[in-house]
Design goal:
alpha+beta, two-stranded antiparallel sheet, 37% helix, 17% strand, elongated
């Protein structure tokens, strides 16, 4: 069973541990939205595009048709 991602909104940079602020290049007085998701359930954007391409091709949809539907020049 997948665990839902946890989203925290309006978190001040200064409210996070200093090492995390530094790693993420956060400014202390800016507000951030943070999303936490178990790493084994994470799918990268590029992987999601590849899955979409494969599913589209199975249905006879070309890369050009997908790009046109998305309003972009190319999907990658």
């Amino acid at each position: 069973m997948k665990m839902p991602a946890t989203v925290l909104e309006n978190i001040k940079g200064q409210d996070l541990p200093a090492d995390l602020q530094k790693k993420l290049n956060m400014q202390p007085n800016r507000l951030y939205t943070l999303k936490a998701q178990p790493q084994d359930e994470y799918i990268s954007f590029l992987r999601a595009i590849k899955i979409t391409q494969q599913n589209a091709k199975k249905r006879g949809v070309t890369d050009e048709m997908v790009a046109d539907a998305l309003g972009v020049d190319s999907i990658l």
